[in-house]
Amino acid sequence: YHIRSTHQDTFYPLQYDNLNVIESFGRNSRISFPYRRIEKLRNVPPGERRTAGMLTHVYHLFPNVMLSTFPTNRLMTVLEPLAVDRTRLVTYTLSNQIAADDGRAAVAQGRDFVTAGAAEDREMACAAQRGLATRANDHFTFGLFEGAIRHFHQNLAAIIERGASAR
Prior knowledge:
6 strands, Naphthalene 1,2-dioxygenase Alpha Subunit, Chain A, domain 1, six-stranded antiparallel sheet, alpha+beta
């Protein structure tokens, strides 16, 4: 629903459109996105399978931090609310593969790839926000495959309700 339509030239050629695993732990969540190359493990005995480089994990640490794992780097993104309609994103990129020239090149290529995909996600989120700002709809329903977003909003609503009832 999202990968194919939003990331046609970035993530979609390497990952599946509607295949992920969403797990919640407390207020937090993790989404695991397999790369198509995970199919190479099909004939590998289970005890010998290694998923390094085969999955991207996105951890959402409630309320405003995301940790993302990619084959060559790890990202930590902090979303800082500035106003109802503005948020600052601060992203840190980490890698343990920059000791050699080829490692630095792979990390730079991976960083550029992820940056392009993140720009596509940002535009999708901004488009949704612009739609909400029109007040054309009374309700907003998350899609079937948006369990992590639904989990976030349920937790946020619970905290807001507790704060309102404490007044």
